[in-house]
Amino acid sequence: MSLRVQQLTSPVTPRQMQLLRMIGRVQASQCYLPTIGELAAELGISRSTTFEHIGELRRKGLVSACPGKARSLSLTCKAQELLEELSSRSSGSLHELSGGIPLVGRVAAGLPIEAIEDRDFLSLNSYFGDSEDVFALKVTGDSMMGDDIRDGDCVICRRAAVADDGQLVVAIIDDENATLKRFYKEKSRARLESANDDYGSIYSDNCRIEAVVIGLVRKL
I want to staple 26 with a disulfide (CB 3.0 to 4.6 A). Which of 34, 94, 171, 220 is the partner? Predict the structure, then answer.
């Protein structure tokens, strides 16, 4: 059973899983089915991006739709079985299902300590939670090197619409350009600061906070 679920869930991205759950929720609670525009608005992403994800879900046999009909998106039996089985599993099983790495103890970075094996599983979910608001982004560029965020790193983000001064955020500028910067609110605009002297400040009166950064993952 575990192998079957792993084979089903491995090609489904977190965003696509969000869409499946949203479609399922509307399908179960309303007398009508959601449109791509409604899904895009609820997730805060563009219609074109939502359309691409829906296309992938249709290709994977998880969503069906009638061509030319707006309110025709619905979950297939395969998708319903997937969601039911995932929701019935304990959090520990889900951590293992999501590829948790064995956590077997501690290691000293200062004075040596006694080696005690304490077997557990380490996963991103166990550190940051399994909320649908938590997601990862791969960093491209070197503008945040001063904060030890390098090209190729992955930042762990929590979806948010507001941020405190100085917080590291993912911001959308002019409704289309996403950037990773330190956020500062000024009188009539936002100021986004890099952590690299080669990059200047970005000032914008059309800046939307998409998420705050809560963690970093790096492969050495």
Answer: 34
pLDDT at 170 over 50: yes
Reported pTM: 0.52
Known active-site residue 181? yes
More confident residue, 189 or 176: 189
Confidence (pLDDT) at 89 = 57
Of 181, 187, 194, 219, which residue is the catalytic one? 181
Domains of the chain: 2-88 (1.10.10.10), 90-128 (no CATH), 134-217 (2.10.109.10)
Catalytic site residue 143? yes
Q: Got the DSSP string for the chain? A: -HHHHHHHHTT--HHHHHHHHHHHHHHHHSSSPPPHHHHHHHHT--HHHHHHHHHHHHHTTSEE--TT-SS--EE-HHHHHHHHHHHHS-HHHHHHHTTPEEE-----SSS--------EEE-HHHHH---TTEEEEE--SSTTGGGT--TT-EEEEEE-S---TT-EEEEEETTTEEEEEEEEE-SSSEEEE-SSTTS--EEESSEEEEEEEEEEE---
Res 122 pLDDT > 80: no
pLDDT digits (tens, 9 = 90+) for 15-59: 888 888 888 888 777 667 888 888 888 888 888 888 888 888 988
State the pLDDT at residue 93. 46
Of 91, 143, 188, 194, the active-site residue reads 143
